[in-house]
Amino acid sequence: MAANNAQDLPPAAGWQTHEVDNQPPPFEGRNLYTTDTALRDAVHREGGGWGEDQLRHYGERVGNELWEAGFDANRNPPELQTHDRYGHRVDQVKFHPAYHQLMDAAIGNGLHALSWDQTGAGAQVVRSALMYLHNQAESGTMCPVTMTHAAVPALRHQPDVARLWEPRILSRQYDARFLPPEQKAGVTLGMGMTEKQGGSDVRANTTRAVPVGAEGPGRDYELIGHKWFFSAPMSDAFLVLAQSRGGLSCFLLPRWRPDGSVNALRIQRLKDKLGNLSNASSEVEFQNAHAVMVGEEGRGVATIIDMVAQTRLDCMIGSGSLMRHGLAHAMHHCAHRKAFGSTLLQQPLMRNVLADLALEVEGTTALTFRVAAALDRQQHDPAEAAFARIATALGKYWICKRAAGHITEAQECLGGAGYVEEHVLPRLYREAPVNAIWEGPGNIQCLDVLRAMQKSPETVQAVMDELRRAQGENRHLDAATQRIENRLGGHAELPMEARSLVEDLVLALQAGLLVRAGHHAIADAFCAARLGPDRTLLYGGLPGGLDADIILSRASPQEE
After folding, report:
1. Nearest by Cα to 265 from 244, 243, 234, 242
2. pTM attached to this predicted model
């Protein structure tokens, strides 16, 4: 056989492979608020329309410089410095400048404070929308912002402590310096409850609180013990639980003692986590650390539970916004990527998958902001307080559970492009599990729903009243409501069936909210896909006859 020679080869230009086509343009550079129809609708529906200008402005920032900062903060995770070069114990965590940039934006826009320093209706709604946007730029900074925000109602159980700390907490100035709080322009707060032997069973905690002089609320104590998961350890103070003479009590533990010396909070190590990499989570020991009792002695769980309710809402916000961001990227990619003669967005089966993902985000957004509105109204409306009591656990369970599978499906829409670290989707996937774990995993939420139903029957009434407001509007929803009534009035094997009961309640609540929102194509599709007889286990199984054009149009991340 004759050997090949040079003249048989194509010219060099024929070997060029660097012409790029059939790739989507960059996603960044868009306003994440104005391009999110479901979010805008929910904000206005639940009384947050007065925050429109701020939300538009923050949506622009999040889609541009803060989005880039999110990548930098995750490429450069925090570093623990236990000692200085002279051997002195310092217990500090160093962060990349991008982390501080993100924190400065969040604090400056009141994500930690807006619910408490605004007097009008809808403050929780607007603040939730700001958090929803911020989390799409970077999730790790949500942890200290969330805990700072959530600490306020717990601190108010001890008015003298609240008067001292609340003005510093509500400051719109981010001050990362490691200084006593009275020397700072603003402070952040953290929380620590989890111990090795206790986990969710916080009453098994062994940290001891020894009084320094007089005992009781507002008095000084020294804490001896540990916390196994202690997030954001560079916060200025922490709400923690410890065993005092009168039982498990709540304490405020600052990083600095009243005499100006550094408190004996020893950071043992930073956690090597699956995700949430920009945020420092740690293990700590208290070695006679100064703390002040907050709230009634022996009522630590009851005191700190107000903080937990707020953080559960933020878990819903965090998971919902991750799903929205994943959907936006999937829609963006499929609108530009071509295969088999048309864009992916025009392919029937891909349209089914994307529309199903979009319905999940619609239901999630509707329930999240309904809960935020209930928290806004709870002080003046007992029915709203009852609804918020149970709905935070319902939503926290379901929405946080759905995030990981939702983001995986979004990655599949992109194929390999959604699996490489240059893209944001791998980071979203690693972030997805944390909200399901934080503030009590799934079983804890379901048991809390049962506890609310048993101890506070008005919570059941609040949920059923919510469902009945949409009665007669959709046959699948009517049937689901009847099934729920039958279950609640029967002899279900609880808690064995708690998860299935919670699922029924959440799906019906989401469906009812979408029906009442008035977007018939969305509501009809959701009810058929989530409550009807043809429901499937995975995304992409929507029944025929639904208006995919309207569903996908609302989900598009393009400017109108």
Report:
1. 234
2. 0.95
* SS3 call for 86: coil
- The residue whose two tokens read 């046959």 is 475
Residue of 92, 111, 107 lying closest to 232 (CA atoms): 92
Q: Give just the sign of the alpha carbon dihedral 379, 305, 278, 107.
A: positive
Q: Is the dihedral of CA 193, 502, 321, 385 positive or negative?
A: negative
Helix (H/G/I), strand (E/B), else coil: 220: strand
Instruction: Enter the tokens of residue 359.
Output: 């319905």
**φ, ψ dihedrals at 551, nearest 5°:** -60, -45
Alpha-carbon distances, residue 126 vs 48, 104, 111, 227 (angstroms): 5, 18, 9, 33
Place of tokens 């939300």: 55
Q: Which amino acid is at 311?
A: T
Query: Kind and range of the H or E element at 129?
Result: helix 123-137
* pLDDT single digits (tens) 453-478: 999 999 999 999 999 999 999 999 99
Distances (CA, A) of 20 to 17, 24, 25, 72: 8, 10, 11, 26
Q: What is the pLDDT of residue 14?
A: 61
Which one, of 377, 379, 383, 370, lies nearest residue 156 by Cα? 379
Mean pLDDT of the chain: 94
Quote helix, strand, coil % in the chain, to nearest 5.
55, 15, 35
pLDDT number for residue 392: 97
Other C-beta atoms lying within 10 Å of the C-beta of residue 383: 16
Torsion angle, alpha carbons of 419, 421, 422, 427, to 10: 90
Peptide bond into 217 cis (omega under 30): no
Contact 540, 352 (CB under 8 A): yes
